[in-house]
Amino acid sequence: MKYRTCQDAFNDGAQSRPSYPLRLGLYKLSESIRNLQSTRDEVIRISKVVKGTKSPSCLQHCTNEDKAVWLRKVPLFAAYDLGYEIIPALRALEFDGVLKSQSEAAALLVESAIPPAL
């Protein structure tokens, strides 16, 4: 990833999404949840490898040698996904039968937790 900050990653994700608008939101939110859970599980596996309770061969997203590099990128991946996948998917829930006012309110609630760009 070429980002220096999470804000850069988020902005790139948010600016990239209009080129590929979502026609449905629920599947994208489900996919994002699975990706976040998979990332969480890998962090747990790394912790166990570092503690010596698991073999490095259990790692799925990185190798034992590059685990530190992979861990440093996790916040950037999450920030990008927030801008590219999660917030647009919340807005696209209207195409899954959610009232547009509710899907927009959910997206705005998440966006309100993001610090403004400097």
Q: What is the 3D form?
A: elongated
Largest β sheet strand count, sense and barrel closure: none
Helix/strand structural class: mainly alpha
- The helix/strand order is HHHH
What's the number of domains?
Answer: 1
**Any idea what the radius of gyration is?**
17 Å
Quick description:
With 118 residues, the protein is mostly helical.
Notes on the protein architecture:
By secondary structure, this protein is mainly α. It has one domain (25-112). Helix content is 64%, strand content 0%. The chain has helices spanning 6-16, 26-51, 67-92, 100-112. Helix 1 crosses helix 3, helix 2 (26-51) runs antiparallel to helix 3 (67-92) and helix 3 (67-92) runs antiparallel to helix 4 (100-112). The chain starts with 5 loop residues before the first helix and ends in a 6-residue tail after the last helix. 19% of the residues are buried. The model has no long low-confidence stretch (mean pLDDT 95).
